[in-house]
Amino acid sequence: MSKRLTIPLLFAFVALFLASCQSKQSASDLQKTLEDNPEILTEVMKKNPQLFMETLQKMASQMREKALEDRNKKEQEILEAAFKNPIEVEKHSEDLIIGNPNAKVIIYEYSDFQCPFCYRALETVKQVLDDYKDDVAFVYRHLPIDSIHPNARLAAKYYEAIRIEYGQKAFDFHETILKNQNKVRHGEKYFISLVKEMKLDVGKIKELVSSKRVENKIAADVASANKLGFSGTPGFVVAGVPVKGAYPYSHFKMILDRRLNGNSKDPASEMAKIK
Predict the structure, then answer these.
(1) pTM of the predicted protein model
(2) Which residue has the higher pLDDT, 8 or 232?
(3) CA-based nearest residue to 111, from 192, 250, 247, 221
(4) Which of 19, 137, 74, 129 is nearest to 267 (CA)?
(5) C-beta separation of 74 from 108 below 8 A
(6) Is the pLDDT of residue 12 over 70?
(7) Helix 188-197 crosses helix 202-209 at what angle (to 10 degrees)?
(8) Mean pLDDT over residues 144-157, rounded?
């Protein structure tokens, strides 16, 4: 527990503790007394160490629960607003659609190849595609965080180059990269080795990596992410509902079931499960 948090809690607890013994003195007077004479805290703590620790732990736990409750309430409000007024994602002619292009729902992800949470998100996306079959499709878009992930943008360029030349094989590249993020630090050397391993035309891919077409596609993805309010990764739009972070499968399922099936389950109960 930080000093910034502990001291105010101590003051509050001691004020309450002493107030129980000195009913004529107001809590505010006690608070001022403690602030002017902090050594009182030391003496009371020495006499009641176990009681102090138990009370502090209980108060800290209550504060965490309140913060979680407030966060879930806020997220529920955002969720309900999105269901009523789903956000629209501008389509791009060069988006690679994984799954049924005529699916009822397309999930858009804005991601960074060096983001550790994006690998967790990949597993969730794969499970969603397996479970929802033709009803849900997936589009991967780029949001490289250049300030902390120096090779993410280059990885995105290789993804787009492979997409242009080989279509769906780009998703295989995407999955392999995320499963081997420790190798991304090697940069182009690793990406070329992977292209060779996939038996793709290295010369053609390198040519496309340097092309304006690839650069423009990544720039369009970043602009789209910014417009939608995503500044970190991963960020999703699921059936018009923004999902900021690598949420568990249950969260995606709750949104999809409600959108696809008119499921009336109260999202508050689902949000409460996410801690």
Answers:
(1) 0.71
(2) 232
(3) 221
(4) 74
(5) no
(6) no
(7) 140
(8) 96
What is the arithmetic mean of pLDDT over 102-122? 95
Q: DSSP readout, the chain?
A: --HHHHHHHHHHHHHHHHHTT-TTS-HHHHHHHHHH-THHHHHHHHH-HHHHHHHHHHHHHHHHHHHHHHHHHHHHHHHHHHHHS---PPP-TTPPEES-TT-SEEEEEEE-TT-HHHHHHHHHHHHHHHHHGGGEEEEEEE---TTT-TTHHHHHHHHHHHHHHHTTHHHHHHHHHHHTGGGGGGTHHHHHHHHHHTT--HHHHHHHHTSHHHHHHHHHHHHHHHHHT--SSSEEEETTEEEES---HHHHHHHHHHHHH-----HHHHHTT--
Which residues partner with 106 through β-bridges?
A: 137
Residue 57 has pLDDT above 70, yes or no: yes
Is the pLDDT confidence value at 42 over 90? no
> Using an 8 Å Cβ cutoff, are 82 and 241 in contact?
yes
CA dihedral 223, 226, 232, 235 (to 10 degrees): -80
- Range with lowest mean pLDDT among 5-14, 40-49, 169-178, 210-219: 5-14
One-letter amino acid of 34: L
What's the confidence (pLDDT) of residue 54?
A: 79
